């Protein structure tokens, strides 16, 4: 199966660089590229794709607003969106995720990390760079402690002890490899536990799992 991708960035060299990185995986096909956020939804109506790689800072409208407009017409299960940017401030991360982005990756990721993030998101998961995860967690920890959501907490009761351990480590900002090393298991096992935990608590992706963990009072 191939994944059709639309690249949205106002810089020609960035779009060319992303195209070059995506050549690592022959299943990833660049269907087109745009330089203006206003062009995205009209383009998608005539050129269906599976995933949009979206910049934040662009003329017309920014990537957050473009993502919000995409979600008005295309649900997450029909079209995935990954925000690619050099900015990892917590307000930008939160705005992108609230607008409906499925992932948030820094433009400094390696080609292999970009391909892995796309594969994760297309497969129904979420992708957050280490910096984006840190920004999200920073926002949570810098905010006043929330009132514990008892309904969410009850959902976490369905987790096994291993799944709960993985969830807390995910919420602390660790990646699968780091969690695997800490727990002396394989990264695949960590991913399996995380996916099962997301299913049990109703989180659509890793970012929402982190949010649910804090709201349930299960702080790292």
From TrEMBL:
Residues that span the membrane, as ranges: none
Pfam families membership: GerE, Response_reg
Transcription is among the record's keywords: yes
InterPro entries noted in UniProt: CheY-like_superfamily, NreC/VraR/RcsB-like_REC, Sig_transdc_resp-reg_C-effctor, Sig_transdc_resp-reg_receiver, Tscrpt_reg_LuxR_C, WalR-like
Residues with the 4-aspartylphosphate modification: 55
Entry keyword set: DNA-binding, Phosphoprotein, Transcription, Transcription regulation
The protein's name in its UniProt record: DNA-binding response regulator
């Amino acid at each position: 199966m191939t994944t059709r991708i639309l690249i949205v960035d106002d810089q020609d060299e960035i779009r060319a660089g992303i195209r070059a990185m995506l050549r690592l995986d022959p299943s990833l096909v660049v269907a087109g590229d745009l330089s203006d956020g206003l062009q995205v939804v009209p383009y998608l109506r005539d050129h269906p794709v599976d995933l949009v790689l979206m910049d934040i800072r662009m003329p017309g409208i920014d990537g957050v607003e473009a993502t919000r407009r995409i979600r008005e017409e295309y649900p997450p299960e029909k079209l995935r969106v990954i925000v690619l940017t050099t900015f990892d401030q917590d307000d930008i991360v939160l705005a992108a995720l609230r607008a409906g982005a499925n992932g948030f990756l820094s433009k400094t990721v390696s080609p292999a990390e970009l391909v892995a993030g796309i594969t994760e998101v297309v497969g129904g998961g979420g992708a957050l760079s280490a910096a984006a995860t840190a920004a999200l967690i920073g926002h949570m920890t810098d905010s006043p402690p929330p009132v514990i959501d008892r309904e969410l907490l009850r959902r976490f009761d369905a987790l096994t002890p291993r799944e709960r351990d993985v969830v807390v480590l995910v919420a602390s900002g660790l990646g699968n490899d780091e969690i695997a090393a800490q727990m002396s298991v394989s990264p695949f096992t960590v991913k399996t536990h995380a996916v099962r935990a997301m299913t049990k608590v109703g989180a659509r992706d890793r970012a929402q799992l982190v949010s649910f963990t804090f709201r349930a009072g299960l702080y790292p």
